Amino acid sequence: MSIETARRRQQGVTLVELIMFMVIVSIALAGIVQIMRMVTANSADPLRRKQALMIAEALLEEVRQAGFTYCDPRSDNADTASGTDKCTIKEGFGNEGADDNTYLRPYDNVNDYGSAAGVATAAFNNGKGELTDAQGRPMGLEGYSATVAITPEILGDIVAGSGADSNALRIRIVVKYDETEAVTLDGYRARYAPSPGAP
To answer: Which of 13, 96, 105, 154 to pair with 30, CA 20 to 30 A apart?
Structure first.
């Protein structure tokens, strides 16, 4: 090997080679940063969806735990009536005490959460349109809204009936978030006795 060849091997990289290396690495880094930015921007979506699902589950559970009676609990025969026609104070759709704030959430009957059969109602909001917990306190969840629809439903051998006389109800909770996204949960409630305390 000649001395000239040995000197060339020891010289290292040229300025042109160094600049080309820097350009290639910069392009690769720019691509990686773009991918990381996209992943980071979309990583909040699953979190918001999961939070919307938790809200929907909690609201569905609240509605399902309400009574399912023919009569309003203030009716003197609430425990024994076998239909709304036999009640002194009938149970119907809508919160009976909404005008005077006598009945606040949680309501005493599943039907109280809906304004009419199959109509989506914002029963979980306060006067400002904010989602509230069962005690009426704002939850502080910006960008979320919820509605409930109570619909008489045929459930197996259980005949649907009509209005407050129905024996099975479908409860549909829709929680919207980010203006265009929504989570929908359906639950069912069947009448197993005229009231929770009846045999």
So the answer is: 13
Q: Give the pair of three-digit tokens for residue 49.
A: 């969806």
Q: CA-CA distance, 188 to 172, in Å (whole number)?
A: 9
**Distance of alpha carbon 84 from alpha carbon 181, whole angstroms:** 39
The edge-to-edge listing of strands for the beta sheet with 181-190 is 144-152, 168-177, 181-190
Listed in sequence order, the residues at least 6 apart from 37 whose beta carbon sits closer than 8 Å to its beta carbon are none
Q: Which residue has the tokens 């000239």?
A: 4
pLDDT under 50: residue ranges of the chain: 102, 194-199
Pairing status of strand 168-177 against strand 144-152: antiparallel
Per the structure block, which two tokens stand in for 82? 């076998």
The answer to whether residues 83 and 148 touch, using CB atoms and an 8 Å cutoff, is no
H, E, C per residue of 60-129: HHHHHCCECCCECCCCCCCCCCCCHHHCCCECCCCCCCCCCCCCCCCCCEHHHHCCCCCCCECCCECCCC
Q: Percentage of the chain with pLDDT > 90? A: 24
- Rounded CA-CA distance 114/33 in Å is 49
Angle of helix 44-64 relative to helix 15-42, nearest 10 degrees, comes to 10
